[in-house]
Design brief:
Length: 249
């Protein structure tokens, strides 16, 4: 392997080595399915210990950039991560940031509104009968008065995932599903006790009817109403939390 790696500086050696190898994969210097040098060879090239190399490889494996195989023809190979694997990494990172307070619900609502407005516009034009059926199935689930809050929120997420799929735009779908999977469950958890299910179901019915009619503007109007409700319920949840905290003092 004739790849030139950048010299190491002061940060974690394992992190720097992982980033060097990752860059070689991204640039195409290391090809998919190509075997990496052994731990011993990498340790000699980077002038570090084998445990440091092992830690660097663990970082790459966690990003689904490499895979290991045992046996006579085994070793460590460059992997081609699937969209789902990459999206899962992004979703987990975004969920963590939300949990740490890096994004508030206003950020979430604004982002969803922008992305899903585009989804409505494209889905109205490109949706298939299968998408309409999938949306109708979720609506039937949501109309069940005996449905638990957890199952209702899960159906809400699935409804919006179908909306993203109906755009027939791979990149937009990738971005929207990442946002939905990371942020919508968090938003639902905050506002569910203040939300009126029937109103949300009605909004979903309006979105479905608009998509059936290929009426993008009506679908967007129903979506905007839903996002506005989300912001209002979030404000109620925040007020309730403040009162609860004050009463406990």
């Amino acid at each position: 392997m004739s790849i030139k790696f950048e010299p190491l500086i002061t940060e974690s050696l394992a992190k720097q080595i992982a980033e060097n190898i990752r860059e070689a994969i991204v640039k195409g210097s290391l090809k998919v399915d190509e075997r990496l040098p052994t731990e011993e060879e990498l340790a000699a090239r980077f002038e570090v210990s084998r445990p440091t190399i092992r830690e660097a490889l663990k970082r790459l494996a966690a990003q689904h950039l490499i895979r290991s195989r045992r046996g006579p023809t085994g070793g460590t190979f460059v992997n081609r991560p699937s969209q789902d694997e990459v999206r899962l990494n992004l979703t987990n990172a975004m969920t963590l940031l939300v949990g740490m307070g890096e994004f508030n619900l206003a950020d979430i609502a604004e982002t969803r509104q922008g992305l899903e407005t585009l989804c409505c516009r494209l889905a109205a034009e490109r949706r298939t009968d299968a998408h309409l059926v999938a949306l109708a199935v979720e609506l039937d689930i949501q109309r069940d008065p005996e449905l638990s809050d957890v199952d209702f929120c899960a159906s809400d997420v699935r409804f919006h995932r179908v909306l993203a799929d109906a755009t027939d735009n791979a990149l937009l779908k990738f971005i929207v599903l990442t946002v939905i999977d990371a942020l919508q469950p968090v938003a639902n958890m905050v506002v569910y006790q203040f939300r009126k299910r029937q109103r949300l179901v009605s909004q979903h019915e309006s979105i479905l009817a608009a998509l059936q009619a290929r009426d993008a503007d009506s679908a967007i109007a129903a979506l905007n109403e839903q996002i506005a409700d989300l912001g209002e319920k979030y404000a109620q949840a925040c007020t309730s939390r403040v009162r609860h905290n004050q009463s406990g003092l």
